[in-house]
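Hi everyone, sorry if this is the wrong subforum. Our group has a chain we'd like a structural model of before ordering constructs, and none of us has done structure prediction before. Sequence below.
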Amino acid sequence: MDTNWGKGEFVRKKPVTDDDKVVMANYMEAGLRAGRRREDLLYELSKGYERSTRQIERYISEVEVITAKPNLTIEYNPESLEDPGIYTFDDGQKASFCCVQVWNKGKDLAENCLGTLKLISLGDKNGESYYNLHWAFDDPYLYKDVPRSIDIPPGHASRLDVVFALPPSQKETSELSNQTTTSGKPYPIEVPYEQPSSHCLESKVKGCWIATHLALRTHIGGDQYHLAPGEHLAKVEVSCDEGGHDEKYFKIISPKDWRKLTMELVDFTKMKT
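Answer:
Right subforum, don't worry. Here is the predicted structure as tokens:
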């Protein structure tokens, strides 16, 4: 008995993701509003996704459950008033920030949201590194550099700081008594200030810093958070309980002039080809 029939021509179907199901539901809704017949729309979707019309109907019925979950989305708009650019602390000190907005576009609370940065290219350094990023308005001095999570309600966004730069004079003369957090509140005086090493002061006048809790609370943060002037490729990723997740790739332009700190959204799939 021949058991080798058609094996060479068999092609495994690609799995249908939750995003695919949302696309199906949106396609169906738009078509019905335009006066299209439901049967025709199901046929088109079945051909496009190589599934039966019954399967397509089941996928569409699952969308209401899917959209009820937290749905984190990273958005970057450097022109937005919500993203501070040049930020002035309450004491008059200034810093240049690049930030993203993290939206919860689902229908449920996004609990324990974490933001991380992974350096893909390190310029004059080697390897890959992960960093826990700072949520704006969260006091970095209280939590040091431990992962700090927040909750984002449905339909709301929170700002995630990615990188920052300071004028050279501020880097060399940071003092706890004169600093405030990114929430505008003074650092707690009872917590002892950690003076950075002389190596940091001498070598880190130019460039920018990854916006971790430790880097922000000292306004310097040490070698491990510093990005030398030049271009650096990084992945910013956010996640929460119940599976909410998103990631975006950015080209960070670390400047010699602190006021020219910028980053650009990039299509990493095209860069790999």
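For your construct planning: The chain has a mean pLDDT of 75. The chain has two domains: 10-67, 72-272.
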